[in-house]
Amino acid sequence: MKRTPQAQPLFLMCEPRHFTVDYEINPWMHTAHPVNRPRAAREFGALVRLYTQLGARVEFIRPRQNLPDMVFTANGAVVRGGTALISNFRYLERRPETALFASWFRAHGFRVKRMPEGTRLEGQGEAFFTNGHMFAGYGFRANRAGHRVLEKTFHLPVVSLRLIDPRFYHLDISFCPLRDGAVLYYPGAYDGASRAKIKRCAARAIPVTRTEALSFVCNSVPMGHVLVTGGVPSAGTRRALRALGYAVRHTPLGEFKKSGGGARCLTLSLNS
């Protein structure tokens, strides 16, 4: 694949053609609450259009029947500098995605790395590059052994954060890196030691409330001077974001929240 200049965000997404809630592997998922697929398609289309209006280029991986969560491409790999570290999923329901993501990355010219047996990591859902290091979550879907693979693959130190609330089963539901090393985060998702690490390692740590976190305000995608979100930031959070130079663009993603995902979950950055 011809490399896109860093100034233009490059995303990998997957159309929700087969998106359903057929099983329950996180507290948001309830098979009794079915997905409205036409509405999901409209929400997804609006997100893609917003990205392209803001200057992003969007690539797509083909959706597969019986893999409804493949729509959450952020979980497929950690990507940096042309290298894709393919995820090792905890749950059996998602493990067939691994070979499909590996195949896509190989076909598009990336160096593909695989996780060793016994290590767990679920892509950019658990790992963010910022300020010369990586923040990485563990506790529900990833383990510390997976963090060691991250360090070895990308040659950057990892700040390991322990998640303690199953509603925030991936790091990206309670943590959002912003410009200049600042982060949005929900303190209640972490143990005390991890909260201290965030405050120490982030250039600025902006806490959000429980209500904001449950609206998935941290599961957002910063793009230049815009923060794309399906969540609902408070007036105080909007002021903090404005002070950093961000305008908030809200786009509804309620159908995807039924499976525990938002804007960031649906979006794998290929040139982070």
Key features of this structure:
single chain; 272 residues; alpha/beta; L-arginine/glycine Amidinotransferase, Chain A; three-stranded mixed beta sheet; 15 strands; 25% helix; 22% strand; globular; disordered N terminus
Describe this structure in words.
The chain has 272 residues and is α/β, with parallel strands linked by helices. It has a single domain, classed as L-arginine/glycine Amidinotransferase, Chain A (5-stranded Propeller). 25% of the residues lie in helices and 22% in strands. The strands form 5 sheets. It has a 3-stranded mixed β-sheet with strand order 2-1-15, covered by helices on one side. Strands 3-4-5 form a 3-stranded mixed β-sheet, with helices on both faces. The longest helix is centred in the N-terminal third of the chain and has 17 residues, at 37-53. Mean pLDDT is 97; it is low at 1-5.
- What's the Cα radius of gyration? 17 Å
**Can you identify the CATH class?**
Alpha Beta
CATH topology: L-arginine/glycine Amidinotransferase, Chain A
- Spatially, the strands of the biggest sheet line up as 2-1-15
Structural class: alpha/beta
Q: What is the succession of H and E elements?
A: EHEEEHEEEHEEEHEHEEHEHE
Helix content: 10-25%
CATH superfamily: L-arginine/glycine Amidinotransferase, Chain A
Overall geometry comes to globular
Mean pLDDT: 97
In angstroms, what separates the terminal alpha carbons?
16 Å
Low-confidence stretches: 1-5
Strand content: 15-25%
Question: What is the number of helical segments per DSSP (H or I, 4+ residues)?
Answer: 7
